[in-house]
Write a structure and sequence with these properties.
- The protein has one domain.
- It contains no helices and nine strands.
- The chain has a four-stranded antiparallel sheet with strand order 1-9-4-5, with no helix packed on it. Strands 2-8-6 form a three-stranded antiparallel sheet, with no helix packed on it. Strands 3-7 form a two-stranded antiparallel ribbon.
């Protein structure tokens, strides 16, 4: 009799659900931010969807999160913004206004959207 490789025959099905947890933070500028300058918004300067003052910006889940920045309702390019999670004095959003472009004017709404995803997988093994 010839040699054979013996192995188990197993059928498995995996189902993955990804649940987003969006959070939005709002700020209205009080000064002009000129081209070449940086607008830095502390966590305490934001308010949330209910109008309540924010004391902390959420952490970004590694590999399962993103943040978007909107100024005057227009999404901005990711590379002009730096997001730092944390409480007042630590947590902030910094927006670098590229030289040669328009200023961010007084009264401009800035919206920070943070989305963390919570993936959950279930595997069912049938023999």
């Amino acid at each position: 009799m010839a040699l054979e490789l013996m192995k188990l025959l197993v059928t498995a099905t995996t189902t993955t659900e990804t649940t987003p947890t969006p959070e939005r933070f709002f700020f209205v500028t009080t000064t002009i931010t000129a081209p070449g300058a940086t607008l830095t918004i502390d966590a305490a300067d934001f308010f949330d969807d209910s109008g309540t003052a924010v004391t902390e910006l959420p952490a970004l889940s590694s590999g399962n999160s993103l943040f978007n920045v909107y100024i005057n309702g227009v999404m901005q390019m990711q590379d002009i913004s730096t997001y730092t999670a944390g409480a007042t004095g630590v947590g902030s959003l910094a927006i670098d206004v590229p030289a040669g472009l328009s200023s961010i004017l007084i009264g401009s709404p800035v919206v920070l959207e943070v989305i963390n995803f919570a993936p959950d997988s279930t595997t069912t093994i049938a023999t």
